[in-house]
Design a protein that fits this description.
The complex is a heterodimer.
Chain A (H helix, E strand, L loop, with lengths): L14 E4 L2 H10 L16 H6 L4 H8 L7 E10 L8 E14 L4 E11 L5 E12 L5
Antiparallel strand pairs in A: 1-3, 2-5, 3-4, 4-5
Chain B lengths: L4 H4 L7 E5 L6 H11 L9 H6 L9 H15 L5 E8 L9 E11 L2 E10 L4 E9 L3
Classes of the chains: A alpha+beta, B alpha+beta.
Amino acid sequence: MSIDPSFIGFKLPRFDVRVDDAELARFRAATGAAMDQASGDCLPPTYLKVIEGTGGSSRTIVEALGIDLRRMLHAGQEFEYLRPIKAGDTVTVEREVTAIEPKKGGALELVVIASTFRDTAGRELARSRQSLLVRNPVPR
Amino acid sequence: MRKSLESLAQLPLGTIAAQWRPAPAIAENLRAYASASGDSNPLHLDLEFARQAGFDDLVVHGMFGMAQLGRLLFENFEPACLRAFSVRFEGVVTAGTPLNHCARVAAIDGDTVRLELLSETGDGRRVISGEATLART
């Protein structure tokens, strides 16, 4: 079963995430960041993925699209950093499915999910773009 | 010791600007990463599920590898200079696989330096490729 392309444009309701010190410390420990004290205020560069996934939002999108996790692989990830985000900041996240395209003659489906991160004044702080590849069952 | 953007911009194209071979990720690391990141896809945590999906062992989160590349960038260059960071996950990494992460100077345009990123397994299989853009703050 392939993914219904009418999900292009599917958005999650925007949500706020407070960048929590303790959660950040746990992420740094899990990625072995012994030397990260020297990074000053900067969040680890892939921490945007954690922020956008808050509250199980990634799972919500994958389930809405009816994707079987056994058939899904993370194919690509892009981040753009426009303004600094620090621990203690509150960030508003908006996520949208921006593409669903068959690949390799329909053997695979590419799904792109884009996120924007804004401060409380509405200024854009960062962007993220995730590409997923879903293997379609082989037709008999 | 971090390289300044200015010193980075003096390097010949193709120079390896940073390199790191971390200890291979094992099940314990994947559990810690899943818990800290919220990505609890059973491919990374449940061996039976991973085998059903056709893998020999637990699959290492792609984002765990990208986080290691992120550490490579932050520990070798000025964190505030990072403008863009992107990767393609080109191969599956299973638990226990050693990786070598590497950043090469790919382009220099004034104060902007583009690095080409590459992660390979111990036996030379490319699993992540990507790029990072650094610019003056």
